[in-house]
Amino acid sequence: WIEKELLVHDIEVVSLAEAFNGKDPMTTAMRQIVGVFAQLEKGRITERLLSGRMKKVSLGGYAGGRLPRGYATDDGKLRQNKEAVTVRAIHKLYRQGWAFRKIARHMNTQRIPNSKGSQWYAATVRYIVLNTVYGGQIHYAGQVARGVHRPMGQAPHP
Fold first, then answer.
1. Are 139 and 133 a contacting pair, CB within 8 Å?
2. pLDDT (tens digit, 9 = 90+) per residue, 136-150?
3. CB neighbours of 30 closer than 8 A, spacing ≥ 6?
4. Backbone φ and ψ of 105, nearest 5°
5. CA distance 12 to 4
6. How deeply is 38 buried, as exposed, middle or buried, from its count of CB atoms within 10 A (0-12, 13-18, 19+)?
7. Which residues of the chain have pLDDT under 50?
C-alpha cells in the first residue's frame, strides 16, 4: 500500500537488499510476494509475543502496559515502590467511608502530588480504588489472573 502511494507521487522505491528495482510486471510481482511474506512474518511475531504475554499473565506476572501507581517492575513482576504509601492511604480512607472527591481534596490539601505532579481529581482516586490490580489481580488483553505481586488494598465491586 505504501509503495503504491509513493508511485502515485512518482517516487520509486529502490531496495539495496533485493534486486527488485524497476516497474516491469515481474519486478512488481516479486515485490508483492516479498511484501506478503513480510506481512506473514510480522503476524507470526505478533502472535508469539501475545502468546508469551498471555502465559506470563496466567502465571501472575506483569505482561506490560501502563504501570499502576505505586508499582515498578522487577524481572517481570510488580513490586511496590515509594508511591505505594499514597495508594495504601487512599484505600484506607475509602474503607473508612470517604468519598472519592473528599479523598482528592485531602490529597491536594496535604500537597501530595499525583503521578503527574499535579492535583488530584475524584476520577483519579476512583481509578485507584476500583483498580483490581491493587487487590492482587493482574490483567492483560482481557485475561485476568491472580497476581504474584503484593496487593495494596482491596478493590470493591463497582
1. yes
2. 888 888 888 888 898
3. 18, 20
4. -60, -40
5. 9
6. exposed
7. 158
Which amino acid is residue 99, in one-letter code? A
CA angle 38, 43, 49 (to 5 degrees): 125
Its pTM stands at 0.66
Whole-number Cα distances in Å, 67 to 5, 7, 20: 38, 43, 45
C-alpha cell, 98: 470517604
What span, in angstroms and rounded, lies between the C-alpha atoms of 130 and 154?
8
Q: Cβ(81)–Cβ(69) under 8 Å?
A: no
Cα distance between residue 143 and residue 36, in whole Å: 31
Task: Encode pLDDT of 28-46 as tens digits.
Answer: 788 788 888 989 999 999 8
For residue 56 the three cell numbers come to: 506470563
Query: For position 155, what pLDDT does the model report?
Result: 55
Residue recorded with cell 517516487: 11
Strand 77-80 and strand 71-74: the pairing is antiparallel
